[in-house]
Structure of PA0069 family radical SAM protein:
Amino acid sequence: MGDSFIPVHALKGRGAATRLPHRFERDVRDAFDDGWGTLEEGEAEAEGLQRLQTEVRFEDVKSVLSENDSPDIPFDRSLNPYRGCEHGCIYCFARPTHSYLNLSPGLDFETKLIAKRNVAEVLRAELGRKAYRPSQIAIGTATDCYQPIERELRLTRSVIEVLKESRHPFGLVTKSSAVERDLDLIAPMAADRLAAVYVTITTLDGELARKLEPRAAAPHRRLRTLRTLADAGVPVGVSVAPQIPFVTEDMEQVLEAAWEAGARCAFYTVVRLPWEVAPLFKQWLELHYPQRADRIMARIREMRGGKDYDADFATRMKGSGLWADLIRQRFEKATNRIGFNRQRIGLDLSAFRPPGAAGQGSLF
């Protein structure tokens, strides 16, 4: 008689269903009923996971600006105030970074968050170095800078305050309506061509979004955020990413709604499944779309040269092959018809002035 494995269940408000072991762990264990009450223990553990609370840990960092020279990424400098993200997007390519912290890219990534509490002080010091030369900073490229804990910690706001003081250009990407809180900082900078905001809208289907991105703002709320930002004079764009064959099927409708809400530039990527993201995504498919799971993965592999993921700079963002080409054609036809600019919003680098020491005022 074979082993009876304890079933995995989708968890309300979470993207992942398990604490998937990270790739550096030596021992991997599967839960199964051995006849000694293991099944009941597994069910009790599942109930505990349903009540799983978000934890925040604090760290002091030595640097906050990350430089990038990847040819397929349109920025060379980024900043992320947090590690891990409570939004819980199952497809998030940043999940494997939690492995370096000896934490699971699954549930730990969305429940054990790291806040860089000295991010503003370190940014001030880095911008103040004599050798520093300004280049647009992309905020929130790995984890959402306006995820729920930002409401209380206000680390992203503290970063924007430093950038405003030094007149340093930045763009940020988010799935959260919380960005509206900081319009008092962002709008004046936008008026001087120093700020732009990109809102990710993966789908207009609220039920699907709740499964894909369980703690991000609802699609209709993100559209309202686009309108609020645009009405305040902030240049806004929309990211219709990631595109997942047979899952996200309303790209054109998203683009039309985003245009109506005030977005004037658009971009997309196809789903990326590096390292532990692949088994997490497959598990998610089996839980939510079991009849389609094999077909979806087959199409993803067609875009990745037969593999779950291919890190080749030439294809990792858009994929290759027939399905990738079909997605590209749909995007290009829709953006051309609607009138979108597919270039990122240009910002002014000439106004930068090094910030003063913390607490030091300016006469100018």
User: Anything to note?
Assistant: The longest strand covers residues 195-200.
